[in-house]
From TrEMBL:
Its EC number(s): 2.1.1.-
CDD domains cross-referenced by the UniProt entry: AdoMet_MTases
Protein name: tRNA 5-carboxymethoxyuridine methyltransferase
Pfam families the record matches: Methyltransf_11
Domain Methyltransferase type: 49-146
Enzyme class: transferase
Length: 257
């Protein structure tokens, strides 16, 4: 089992991902991609698997829309945060929490799903492709697969424009790893080939943080983060900006029977 366990970093991880401008961008781009695809599945209750979903930002969002969600994570601390937020919700949320590595999930125990989310997980796995293939055995025909992964080429470009040439020359390897820097970033073409191998149609692709991570450290006094968010949404589905996204979001659909 190769999942990265964020138990010791749960508070830092949650703080770094959401409740910040980069978290707002991530949430906005993903939801912009997901919302129209969900609408095409019809006005009905859907079964959702949030694989490696941490404290379940999208689990909670989808449950509030009336869907039935299974949230799985290897981190007990992350799931404890999820439970606190679920308990604090003014409305009941149909979310089942499973404390396990995502490789342990199976059709036999958990059934089939209309949607599978796997966001910022594969870049921590040494067995990423077979693990994702295992998840897809639980996806219904014409189901949606939302995969967000850390983009290795953007990682390289960010290092180049920051002047970290030794790091680039070392193929982005350092002796001491930063704890929140993914260990197995992926190339876009590599993941496209996965989707092709799985006979899954790619219905949308977006860069996540195509501008934010390249901003100059010093910004004008009147810098407007809402305008930044607007620009992120505007350029996130255009090349060359998709390929510059710190993360890339692929939304695929499985073949209909």
């Amino acid at each position: 089992m190769q999942d990265k366990n964020f138990d010791k970093l749960a508070q830092k991880f949650a703080k770094n991902i959401y409740g910040t401008p980069k978290g707002d961008i991530r949430a906005a781009v993903l939801w912009r991609d997901l919302a129209p695809a969900l609408a095409k599945l019809g006005d009905r209750k859907l079964r959702v698997l949030d694989a490696g979903g941490g404290f379940g930002y999208f689990s909670q969002k989808l449950a509030r829309l009336g869907h039935e969600v299974v949230l799985c994570d290897i981190s007990a601390e992350m799931l404890a945060q999820a439970q606190e937020q679920i308990d604090a919700s003014p409305e009941p949320l149909a979310i089942q929490l499973i404390h396990a590595p995502i490789q342990a999930l199976s059709v036999e125990h958990h059934g089939y799903f209309d949607i599978i989310l796997c966001h910022a997980v594969v870049e921590w796995l040494t067995d990423a492709k077979p693990t994702m293939a295992g998840l897809l055995t639980m996806l219904k025909p014409a189901g949606l697969f939302s995969l967000m992964f850390y983009n290795k080429e953007a990682m390289r470009f960010h290092a180049l424009v920051s002047g970290n040439f030794d790091y680039v020359a070392a193929d982005l390897k350092v002796k001491k790893k930063v704890r929140l820097t993914p260990t197995h970033p992926l190339y876009i073409q590599e993941v496209k080939e996965w989707f092709s191998d799985w006979q899954m149609s790619l219905i949308s692709q977006s860069g996540v943080r195509v501008i934010h991570d390249y901003l100059k450290k010093s910004q004008p006094a009147d810098f407007d983060y809402q305008k930044l968010l607007q620009m992120e949404l505007e350029y996130s589905q255009r090349e060359p900006y998709i390929s510059l996204g710190r993360y890339v979001h692929f939304l695929g659909q499985s073949p209909a029977v």
